[in-house]
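Please decode residue identities from the backbone states below.
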């Protein structure tokens, strides 16, 4: 519906959108939020919209533990094959396959 038929408004003004302090994610912190009313002008008419934006900050601790440390351990484990004897091909192949499949 166009604005001639329907106009959206926030019921409680700036208090319409609130973020609970209990909300948490492992990867992100909730930094803030904002709400706004938008007038969208299109060729078919003017439309009223309500928008709520939530701002997040990336948690570095999560990525260090979940991404960087395992990747570093796989790389270090692949270096072990350089210290194995050239004649021990099964050990080198097993170690190489383990690092690729991990």
């Amino acid at each position: 519906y166009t604005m001639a038929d329907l106009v959206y408004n926030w019921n409680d003004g700036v208090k319409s959108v609130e973020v609970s302090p209990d909300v948490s994610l492992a990867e992100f912190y909730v930094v803030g939020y904002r709400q706004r009313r938008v007038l969208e002008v299109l060729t078919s008419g003017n439309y009223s919209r309500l928008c709520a934006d939530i701002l997040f900050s990336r948690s570095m601790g999560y990525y260090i533990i979940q991404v960087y440390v395992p990747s570093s351990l796989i790389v270090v484990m692949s270096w072990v094959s350089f210290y194995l004897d050239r004649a021990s091909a099964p050990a080198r192949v097993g170690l190489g396959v383990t690092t690729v499949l991990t």
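Observation: The mean pLDDT is 85.
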